[in-house]
Amino acid sequence: MTEGATGSVVKSPPTIVVAGGGTAGHIEPAMALADAVKRLRPDATVVALGTPKGLENELVPRRGYPLELIPPVPLPRKPTADLLRLPLKVRDSVKQAREILDRVGADVVVGFGGYVSLPAYLAARGRVPIVVHEANQSPGLANRVGARFAKRVAVAVPGTPLPNAEVVGIPLRRSITSLDRAALRAEARKHFDLDPDAPTLLVFGGSQGARTINNAVSGAAKELADAGIGVLHAHGPKNTLVVQEFPGRPPYVPVPYLERMDLAYAAADMVLCRSGAMTVAEVSAVGLPAVFVPLPIGNGEQATNAKPAVDAGAGLLVLDADLTPAKVAELVIPRLTEPSELAKMSAAAVGMGHRDADEVLAKIVLEAAK
């Protein structure tokens, strides 16, 4: 901020540092926020903070934002005496984060949780305003710490136990929130070599895939084909998936990774997936009925994430241990072959979520930057 010739205050373009590395669930909301900030303030600078091994090294440059790297700080599930004493690894990461904040001239730090956020919060404390965004109803340690001295705390769902929490939803890409599935359906089916007319199931288990989901759905391939159901299955880049072909039936299309999630959603009539907060938000935003299979590790947050959609009638929940080929056929076939049931579930999904969460959070961040 500088002073003009007449003594009036002239606002400098703000510099926003987003800390959300490690997994797509942390990175994608950060990038959606970055895009929203640039729409509202084209002169703003957005810098991402990450670690050398996280997915941000692929995703952030692809979105056109500069990426600064610091050492990761693995976080325990609960505060420990060692953490409170700031061991050497934490101190080193905080020191490097502080140097980056000074060098880029940060006006606000926005954290989304995970390995990157804690050092960012500690580096910014008392120096740069902090905004925390928590996607899960059960916050992780980084955001529990950061919320104690944040200027604003934004959360995805009501009841999140953080101080002064404001419910804004999860920032999503505009390609998702503005998606017209019906208008893109033909193009999407052609893009993936899917049957243009058959009811189609979209399957994915996160950016790396999920073995339980892969085995269960591929094991149900014959039953799905016999029912006239096509499948688009993202099995993960490190996994292989061998599926028998059934001539004359709708194709079962396995792919390692989905570069165009917007087209994948447009091609689908139903989805079977994990229930990370980001996934649930996207699936609800585009109005897809879902079978959610929560990740069976952690503190149970994925089951919690899916509960509002399940309660609203937009989704079904099946435990990872219970997901078998027979269970896939039992849950998917009656719904994908009954248009009225699909329409009812889709309508319930569309009524959920916060489609403008990206710009709501961007306005909070820009206000904090002042």
UniProtKB/TrEMBL annotation:
Which parts of the sequence bind UDP-N-acetyl-alpha-D-glucosamine? 23-25, 136, 173, 207, 302
Pathway(s) this gene product operates in, as recorded in its UniProt entry:
Cell wall biogenesis; peptidoglycan biosynthesis
Superkingdom field: Bacteria
Listed SUPFAM superfamilies: UDP-Glycosyltransferase/glycogen phosphorylase
The residue ranges of the Glycosyltransferase family 28 N-terminal domain are 16-154
Q: Which InterPro entries match?
A: GlcNAc_MurG (IPR006009), Glyco_trans_28_C (IPR007235), GlycoTrans_28_N (IPR004276)
* Top enzyme class: transferase
Which biological process, per GO, is one annotated for this protein? cell division
Q: Where in the cell is it found?
A: Cell membrane
> Catalyses which reaction?
di-trans,octa-cis-undecaprenyl diphospho-N-acetyl-alpha-D-muramoyl-L-alanyl-D-glutamyl-meso-2,6-diaminopimeloyl-D-alanyl-D-alanine + UDP-N-acetyl-alpha-D-glucosamine = di-trans,octa-cis-undecaprenyl diphospho-[N-acetyl-alpha-D-glucosaminyl-(1->4)]-N-acetyl-alpha-D-muramoyl-L-alanyl-D-glutamyl-meso-2,6-diaminopimeloyl-D-alanyl-D-alanine + UDP + H(+)
**Domain Glycosyl transferase family 28 C-terminal: residue ranges:** 200-359
Q: Example GO molecular function term?
A: undecaprenyldiphospho-muramoylpentapeptide beta-N-acetylglucosaminyltransferase activity
According to its record, how does it sit in the membrane?
A: Peripheral membrane protein
Q: What is its main location?
A: membrane
Question: Which UniProt keyword terms apply here?
Answer: Cell cycle, Cell division, Cell membrane, Cell shape, Cell wall biogenesis/degradation, Glycosyltransferase, Membrane, Peptidoglycan synthesis, Transferase
Q: Return the Gene3D superfamilies for the record.
A: Glycogen Phosphorylase B
Where exactly are the transmembrane stretches of this chain?
none
- Reported EC number(s) for this entry are 2.4.1.227
Q: Could you tell me what this protein does?
A: Cell wall formation. Catalyzes the transfer of a GlcNAc subunit on undecaprenyl-pyrophosphoryl-MurNAc-pentapeptide (lipid intermediate I) to form undecaprenyl-pyrophosphoryl-MurNAc-(pentapeptide)GlcNAc (lipid intermediate II).
Q: Which PANTHER family match?
A: GLYCOSYLTRANSFERASE, UDP-N-ACETYLGLUCOSAMINE--N-ACETYLMURAMYL-(PENTAPEPTIDE) PYROPHOSPHORYL-UNDECAPRENOL N-ACETYLGLUCOSAMINE TRANSFERASE 1
Which protein family is it in? Belongs to the glycosyltransferase 28 family. MurG subfamily.
The name of this protein is UDP-N-acetylglucosamine--N-acetylmuramyl-(pentapeptide) pyrophosphoryl-undecaprenol N-acetylglucosamine transferase
Q: What gene does this protein come from?
A: murG
